Amino acid sequence: MIILGAQISAPSVNALLNSIDLKMAPPIAVRLRLEIRAVVRFQFAKGTKCSVIYREVVENYGEHAMSMTQVYLWCSWFKDGRTSLQDEPRFGRPNTANNDWSTARVDELIKVDRRVKLKEISLKIDIPKTNVYEIVHDKLRYRKVSARWVPKMLSGEHKRQRVENSQIRMNRCQQGDETVDVGPGGDHRARNKLFEHLITGDEIWLHLSTPETKRDSMTWKHLSSPVTKKFKVQQQK
């Protein structure tokens, strides 16, 4: 019998593969993995060294061969008396990251909050972050991009407010003027009472607001989505 180029006695390998109780035919990748494990067990039973088994598996199966670590691991299991070629049952919640429900749920969370993080999605739907990454990037084709910086643009309302604020300050300066005598010569100079209310001291910045950074503005979008614009702002003092 020849299994993908590997010459092995038919009764031995067939007996190993027929011992697998499957309700339905496994996918080709699973079938190939089981065959390689059968080859490893067959060669190990013959007394072949693990390093030689690995070289033969690589020579016959090429890119589909298991790694050297896996060969040594399975040899140790067979040495301990393991007979099954199938994976041991895993406990805990099964991986549901690739089903339609998980994909739809991730898409829903992104549409509700375009700035949601992968870690937050992972915690909300209880699947690994790596699987969330696969759904977002490979299945839903989302990319997280930041808004494009554009020059500051003042609206008509902004300009009107600036003019009003400047006019108020000018009026206060003009209304506060008075003439006083300064010095023994009776020199008359203008003094502005407004400046009497100013207090000097060490300079300190008191920010009225902290604008978000360009990174903070990153949102999930498809490649065909329009580019979001963001005015470049600075902290107000």
User: Strand count, sense and closure of the main sheet?
Assistant: 2 strands, antiparallel
How large is the radius of gyration? Answer: 37 Å
How much helix, percentage-wise, in residues? 40-55%
- The side-by-side strand order for the widest beta sheet comes to 1-2
Query: Could you give the order of the helices and strands?
Result: EEHHHHHHHEEHEEEE
Beginning-to-end CA distance, first to last residue: 83 Å
Low-confidence residue ranges: 1-11, 21-25
Gross morphology:
elongated
Can you count the beta strands? 8
Q: Could you tell me the strand content as a percent range? A: 5-15%
Average pLDDT taken over every residue: 73
Organism: Plakobranchus ocellatus
Protein name: Histone-lysine N-methyltransferase SETMAR
Pfam family, one: HTH_48
Domain Mos1 transposase HTH: 35-81
Helices, strands, pairings?
Elements: E1 2-3, E2 6-7, H1 10-18, H2 28-45, H3 50-61, H4 68-79, H5 100-112, H6 118-125, H7 129-139, E3 143-145, E4 148-150, H8 156-175, E5 177-182, E6 187-192, E7 219-221, E8 229-231
Parallel strand pairs: 4-8
Antiparallel strand pairs: 1-2, 3-7, 5-6
Helix pairs in contact: 1-2, 2-3, 2-4, 3-4, 5-7, 6-7
Structural description of this entry:
- The chain is an alpha+beta fold.
- Among the domains are: 2-79, no CATH class; 100-141; 159-197, no CATH class.
- It contains 8 helices and 8 strands.
- It has helices spanning 10-18, 28-45, 50-61, 68-79, 100-112, 118-125, 129-139, 156-175; strands at 2-3, 6-7, 143-145, 148-150, 177-182, 187-192, 219-221, 229-231.
- Strands 1-2 form a two-stranded antiparallel sheet. A two-stranded antiparallel sheet has the order 3-7.
- It is elongated, with a radius of gyration of 37 Å.
- Residues 1-11 and 21-25 have low confidence and may be disordered.
- It comes from Plakobranchus ocellatus.
